[in-house]
Design brief:
The complex is a heterodimer of chains A (220) and B (644).
Chain A (H helix, E strand, L loop, with lengths): L6 H33 L28 E7 L6 H15 L3 E7 L15 H5 L3 E5 L4 H6 L6 E5 L5 E5 L12 H12 L18 H4 L10
Chain B lengths: L17 H47 L2 E4 L2 E4 L1 H23 L4 H21 L8 H10 L5 H21 L1 H5 L6 H103 L7 H32 L8 E3 L1 H18 L3 E6 L7 E3 L1 H17 L5 E10 L2 E8 L6 H5 L10 H7 L5 H11 L3 E7 L3 E9 L1 E2 L30 E5 L3 H13 L3 E5 L2 H10 L8 E5 L7 H10 L6 E5 L4 H10 L3 E4 L4 H21 L2
Parallel strand pairs in B: 4-6, 11-12, 11-13, 13-14, 14-15
Antiparallel strand pairs in B: 1-2, 3-5, 5-10, 6-7, 7-9, 8-9
Helix pairs in contact in B: 1-2, 1-3, 1-7, 2-3, 3-4, 3-5, 4-7, 5-7, 7-8, 8-13, 9-10, 10-13, 15-16
Classes of the chains: A alpha/beta (220), B alpha/beta (644).
Chain lengths: 220, 644
């Protein structure tokens, strides 16, 4: 003799499971939304007009005459900057000798020299990429970089033509408006979009010492 | 028994009606059961996969993005929190469902969702590594374990929705460009759908094979059930047959044992009177015969034991006829009161010998004449009254004739005897049994009397019952359905014995001058009959068979013809029936009296049909013999005198 099916119990259990699944989906969606929000939240930028549009004379960074000069400012332990470095190597590959690249690396506790930082080996293979140290971040301040992965491009005349990031999100490689703008600028010898391209990475300096403008969209 | 072809799959099943419908139903049940097992097992596998993914995601996050920096200030990277919290959220519910509700559709759909969400999370945690995207395709392939297209489509739908939503809100994250390009979403989704399509085709093929296996299993189960049913049926039949054989064997053994006991009893019962007969005959032929008292006592003893032996043989023959269904009952007019009186008269002497009073109570409302078998009724009453007298040592025996309601006659024989216990009553009417073995030793008897009575009463449509108190007496009650009738006008009606038991004994030479021919193949019978007749003055001629009897008759002249012929009906060469028939065919009307051992009415009628004038049953009673010969010799002489 089969037991009668308790349809009331089954429907109550079904409704409960449906409610739990719905809650789970909402929580997961919220979690992903927060994750996406973080991923697409750029780092702090200088206030408009605070950075010089000309190659600073006070910098110790050598400027290659007749060549495009690209500077990237890095926090050596910023995980998101791996993508920035990968994009940099792609830029160098495309631009070739026309581009003179300098990577300025901040110092962190426990580091002895710039050579002790953890950089992708592919960067070191490029002979036209210099790795320079910026232990106190003065050069970063001079060029107005606040976020790891910040790139500035100067044309052979020493004029800043690009200022921003070359990744589409934190730690994400791939085609980006920044990389496209740089290549376009090199090809056309015209300045890139005057609007600053977001830079996705860690702060080069702490908030107190940086005195930077916080990105209202940044929540971390 | 129809044995189905187990190789047939569902696509090859012909429509054969209810059997195929049953097989199809069973196939569906087996399929659902198998699929449920597959789903449960897959749920278990995915529960472990999700847990492993959670651990892997956490390790990846810690390894690839352990910290977020702000200058020299370090904090836990949001990816680590995402792996810990979001990863837990994604993992917890499907694992819980896999444990609590394994095999359910909701469980595997949630697992499918969670697996794709984990793909998305892992892609983020690995910072968009292209290799991590393979997780989506691997997940789809593993989700195919469920054999459920809904699971695959849900996963594909989530992947497509993720690309669509991010393409709308964060196109750079999907395609690396700022502008929305719908065809890129279709391209990405298309690859996923392509894999899903192939997986669905593979699933369908697998489901088809599972269905074939399920159908084959259903066929095997059906065949096994049929075979088991047949085996049970045969086993039941064999058991029944064995049981019946066993019962038959037990009955046969019981019957054999009972008959063996009966034969042993009969041997004793027969030998006992025979011992007395032969013993006292020796006395008669010896010196002691000269003593008149001894002679008389010996004769009485021989007579008594002869009667007992005769009764014994009659009982055995009666019982055999009853058992073999050869007993024929009459339906003639008879007087129940006369019957009862006759029985009392017969048994009075026996009762007086034991010092008992014998009473007869007649119901005045009882009909004078009824239709029944007076011979068998008499037999039953004689047996019951005889038993009552035998088993009563002091007091009385009463025979009551009652008519409690129209159409029902009741005889009651009550006594003040030793009584019968309830346990003994149970077996009293069974043949070859008595109250107990001690009764046989104390009172003798064949153990057939009551069995014969019961069968005769039941043959007459009635019933017999007993009430008894041990030590106080018994009452036997015979209930008969009867039909009252008018007094018959024919002579020889029941109520008056056909052969008068109280007839006057022809004393002296009443048969003087009577010429009698005795035809009998038994020398002793010839000697006995001729002695009785000659002692009564008759002139006796003997013949050994029917042919000799006809020769003797033919030798006689008209003036010297026989007055009566006593013809034994069972003789060699020419039996009595044929001889009598021949005699009548030649016109000879000499009275022929049949001497027959058969007392049945049809045997008597057969004698009369052959041409006999009357009959005498063996063993022949002297008085009946002389009366019958005297009666018919008078008729014969009258016929001769008148010339008729």
């Amino acid at each position: 003799m089969t037991r009668p099916v308790d349809t009331t119990s089954i429907s109550r259990t079904g409704r409960m499971i449906a409610a739990v699944v719905t809650l789970w989906l909402v929580m997961s969606a919220c979690g992903f939304a927060l994750l996406y929000a973080y991923v697409f939240t750029p780092g702090p930028v200088d206030a408009a007009g605070t950075s010089s549009s000309e190659w600073p004379e006070t910098t110790s960074i050598p400027n290659a005459p007749g060549r495009w000069s690209l500077l990237m400012f890095l926090h050596p332990r910023c995980p998101c900057s791996r993508a920035s470095l990968s994009e940099l190597t792609r830029l160098v590959t495309v631009a070739g000798d026309a581009l003179d690249v300098s990577v300025l690396q901040m110092s962190v506790e426990g580091m002895n020299s710039a050579t002790d930082c953890q950089l992708p080996r592919t960067v070191q293979q490029f002979k036209n990429i210099r790795i320079l140290a910026d232990p106190d971040g003065s050069e970063a301040d001079r060029f107005g970089a606040r976020t790891s992965g910040h790139v500035v491009l100067f044309n052979p005349d020493g004029r800043r033509v690009f200022d921003g990031g070359i990744t589409i999100a934190r730690g994400h490689e791939g085609d980006s408006p920044g990389r496209a703008a740089i290549l376009q600028a090199i090809a056309t010898e015209l300045p890139a979009s005057p609007a600053a391209v977001p830079v996705f990475g860690c702060r080069l300096k702490s908030e107190v010492s940086a005195g930077t403008v916080s990105d209202p969209s940044r929540k971390w | 028994m129809k044995v189905s072809d187990s190789l047939h799959g569902p696509d090859n099943v012909q429509d054969h009606g209810p059997l195929d419908e049953q097989l199809e139903n069973r196939c569906q049940i087996l399929m659902r059961k198998h699929l449920h097992t597959v789903h449960r097992e897959a749920d278990g596998i995915f529960a472990w996969i999700l847990l492993l993914q959670y651990a892997a995601g956490l390790m990846l996050a810690v390894w690839l993005t352990p910290a977020s920096w702000s200058g020299l200030d370090v904090s836990v990277h949001p990816h680590v929190w995402a792996a810990l919290l979001l990863g837990f959220t994604i993992t917890a519910l499907p694992v819980w469902l896999a444990v609590k509700q394994p095999g359910e559709l909701s469980t595997r759909l949630v697992i499918s969702l969670a697996q794709i969400l984990w793909s998305a999370l892992l892609i983020h945690l690995t910072q968009g590594r292209i290799e991590t995207h393979f997780h989506v395709f691997v997940s789809l392939a593993v989700l195919a374990f469920y054999r459920d297209w809904r699971v695959l489509f849900v996963a594909a739908a989530v992947a497509a929705l993720d690309h669509l939503v991010r393409g709308l809100f964060w196109p750079r994250s999907v395609y690396g460009v700022s502008a929305i390009e719908p065809w890129r979403w279709i391209e990405h989704t298309g690859w996923v759908l392509c894999e899903v399509a192939f997986l669905c085709v593979s699933n369908c093929q697998t489901i088809g094979r599972m269905r074939q296996v399920a159908y084959a299993t259903a066929c095997v189960e059906s065949d096994r059930e049929i075979i088991e049913c047949q085996v049970r049926l045969r086993t039941t039949e064999l058991c029944d047959a064995n049981r019946k054989l066993s019962e038959e064997r037990d009955r046969a053994e019981t019957a054999l044992r009972v008959r063996t006991e009966f034969l042993a009893n009969m041997s004793h019962e027969i030998r006992t009177p025979m011992t007395a007969i032969t013993g006292f005959l020796e006395i008669l032929t010896g010196e002691e015969s000269r003593d008149t008292a001894t002679y008389a006592d010996a004769v009485r003893t021989i007579r008594r034991n002869s009667d007992h032996l005769l009764n014994l043989i009659s009982d055995i023959l009666d019982f055999s006829k009853i058992e073999s269904g050869q007993l024929k009952l009459e339906s003639v007019a008879c007087s129940p009161a006369a019957l009862a009186q006759e029985v009392i008269d017969l048994m009075r002497h026996r009762a007086e010998m034991r010092g008992l009073m014998l009473y007869l109570d007649l119901d005045s409302g009882c009909p004078d004449w009824i239709v029944s078998d007076p011979t068998r009724l008499r037999q039953v009453l004689i047996n019951l009254v005889g038993n009552a007298i035998k088993f009563t040592e002091r007091g009385h025996v009463r025979l009551a004739l009652l008519y409690p309601q129209p159409g029902q006659l009741r005889f009651e024989v009550s006594d003040t005897g030793i009584g019968i216990s309830a346990a003994q009553i149970e077996h009293l009417f069974q043949p070859f049994t008595q109250a107990d073995s001690s009764v046989t030793r104390r009172f003798g008897g064949t153990g057939l009397g009551l069995a014969i009575c019961r069968r005769l009463v039941e043959g007459l449509g009635g019933s017999i019952s007993i009430e008894s108190v041990l030590g106080a007496g018994s009452r036997f009650r015979v209930e008969l359905p009867v039909q009252a009738t008018a007094q018959p006008g024919l002579p020889g009606a029941a109520g008056t014995p056909e052969v008068a038991s109280n007839s006057t004994v022809a004393g002296g030479k009443v048969l003087t001058g009577v010429r009698v021919l005795v035809a009998d193949d038994g020398a002793d019978n010839r000697k006995l009959v001729s002695y009785l007749l000659r002692k009564s003055g008759a002139e006796v001629t003997l013949a050994c068979d029917g042919q000799e009897a006809l020769d003797r008759i033919a030798e006689r002249s008209e003036d010297d013809r026989f007055h009566v012929v006593l013809m034994d009906m069972q003789m060699p060469l020419l039996d009595g029936y044929s001889a009598t028939r021949h005699l009548r065919e030649t016109g000879d009307q000499t009275p022929v009296i049949a001497l027959t051992a058969n007392a049945l009415s049809e045997d008597r009628q057969r004698c009369l049909d052959a041409g006999c004038s009357d009959y005498l049953t063996k063993p022949i009673q002297r008085a009946a013999l002389l009366d019958t010969v005297a009666e018919w010799s008078a008729v014969s002489q009258e016929v001769v005198a008148t010339g008729v």
